[in-house]
Specification:
This protein has helices at 15-29, 34-48, 59-69, 71-93, 100-109, 115-133, 141-159. With 161 residues, it is mainly alpha-helical. Helix 1 crosses helix 2, helix 3 (59-69) packs across helix 4 (71-93) and helix 3 runs antiparallel to helix 7.
Length: 161
Amino acid sequence: MAPLGGDAKSLGLDIELIEHVASKLNQIFHLVSSNVVWAMVDALVTERCPMEAQFAKTFTEYAAWMASNSPHAAVLDWWRRLELTLREYAASRGLAAAARGPLEDAISQDPQLGPEIAATLRRLRRRRNAVAHEAHQLLSGDEAASYAKRAFELMGIFGKL
């Protein structure tokens, strides 16, 4: 069984040394489970060779990471970003940002946006509300990533106005 953090060779470690340490740990602690021994060895290897933090370099990488690790948080995050964009739009038009009905009507009647954009916003808002307020909302990483992508696209549309 290989250490949990990867195989020793790829980390540039001496396999014989690792096996020797595992053997000694087993003798010292009289552990029955080799999984526990390897977990301890893995902790030593990780301490000696810490993993590098991965950072997203593109929107797609970030959205995929966020959606796969916490799909509900991704939906709430991207709605919040979109909501801030909608507030800016409302302020530029002299509308109340909190009044969703009048704001959606204004977006629907705006010749640069139209009813399709208003309907998309309505769908995103309803899905966000379900995720935020309804119990046991199932949400896949793919759906969350798609939601983030659509919200980002709408932010771009509003940003061009």
